[in-house]
Amino acid sequence: MTITETTNSTAARGQNRRPDAAGRRTTGAGGAPGGRVSVAVYAEDLILQTGMIHQLRVRPEIELLPEAEADRAQVSLVVVDTVGETTVQLLHRLQRNTSTRTGLVVGYFESGALQTMIECGVAAVLRRGEADQDRLVHLVRAMANGEGVLPGDLLGKLLDHVSSLQRTVLDPRGLTLSTLTAREAEMIRLVSEGCDTAEIAQKTSYSERTVKNVLHEVATRLELRNRAHAVGYAMRHGLI
């Protein structure tokens, strides 16, 4: 299988494109002229390529980029039947361009491909059978706005995966998916309730020295000015 890239009917076919890691963005609202979203399309064959371009080229919200300008795309759409080895290699290459978010339009999404999708930094998934014009444009605009899009069943599997990770890997080590460990979050919560160092030490059964060290580590790691700043950070991010 050879992934080909093109964004118009005259673009070269049958060649992989490796976006530059220093990819550029367009300017203006939405990052593209006139508020349009710049898109590069990667497809595994001519039929998929032609269908995707036909869907997007008529939409005023979309700026389809030629191959030579693919590195400045806000959104890269990868269109395949299944997530195979060649697709994974392409997704990893696209991941190097931090200016571009990658969406996957796939015919059949195997359950084992969920972990691969996460590792490759895929921001959105749409099944090809549901990829009508409006859904494609919604997907592209959502990604350009920093959002993620998943079919409901994949979202459920993703949440189950995260829950399993928390339960089997992080909990036994006293860690969480947040930027704070359980111990750090508890100490900052006590700070938010007005407790001083001695009171926090008494309530958590740690020494005052340990409490000071933990709070200092949090402030240093997250570049927070003081305890009040730490409380504000934790509350804004829903950590306490």
TrEMBL record:
Q: Do the record's keywords include Transcription regulation?
A: yes
Q: What is this protein called?
A: Response regulator receiver protein
Record CDD domains: LuxR_C_like
Q: Which organism is it from?
A: Streptomyces filamentosus NRRL 15998
Stretches with biased composition (Polar residues): 1-13
Phylogenetic lineage: Bacteria, Bacillati, Actinomycetota, Actinomycetes, Kitasatosporales
GO MF entry, a single one: DNA binding
Q: Does the keyword Metal-binding apply?
A: no
What are the residue boundaries of the HTH luxR-type domain, all occurrences included?
Answer: 173-238
What ranges does the record give for the region Disordered, renumbered to this chain? 1-34
Q: Which InterPro entries does the entry link to? A: Sig_transdc_resp-reg_C-effctor, Tscrpt_reg_LuxR_C
UniProt KW keywords? DNA-binding, Transcription, Transcription regulation
